[in-house]
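Tutorial handout. Part one gives the primary structure; part two gives the three-dimensional structure as tokens.
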Amino acid sequence: MKYIIAVAVLGLAAVLARSFFVRESKVSDFSQFPVEQRQCLEYVAPPNQIIYENNRESAAQLLRSGDYLPLLNSSGAERKCLPIWRALGVSKISGPILFLHGRQAVKGSPLLVCLWYGGAESNDDLFRAILLEYVVVQPSRPPASATVLGFSPAQMWLILAKGESLTLLAGQVDQADPSHFVIPYITGSGRGTIDGWLQKDNSLKIGVRDGPLAATELQWRKLRAQ
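Part two.
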């Protein structure tokens, strides 16, 4: 009897494992798409790669590497645009790419998500706002071309204290959730995480999970509500 139960348990485990890997492969199998689309869908940046830096001294070191450009609105640095995105040719962007990869909110083919620093910053007496923008692209098999399904409907801002340094690192996929990705960040006050989710309507939901930016955004909202 114990032998029968053990076999049954092993069989169930095998079925669950097989279903997991099949489901995961549906999200990560991009071989059906042209190479320029597949390169974007599969792109994963090194986890500690700096994409945006507004600290003057740190930015100066990055600029000497040749992989970065000066920020237009401050004495910072931004990573150069990815050549694979330019080769795709679906949408021009105005800043460095924070996240680029295939994500999936519903069953079916994955969508290409691109989130970038929008190149605009706003300042007042207490706060500094950093613009984020995105585009969601539908990959296509030849002879059809990739098409834009969703884009930033309104301005999305990261709020930090005026004079605070900010480093945005390359976004990373969440292996447990095919719709989710994270962008780590560092300020002079500590570290935190920005979450992104692909929604069923092809939009992106962006939110600060924790760290100094979460506290600053809460303070900013309270002041605006007064």
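Part three, for discussion. The first strand starts at residue 50 and ends at 53. Residues 1-27 have pLDDT under 50 and may be disordered.
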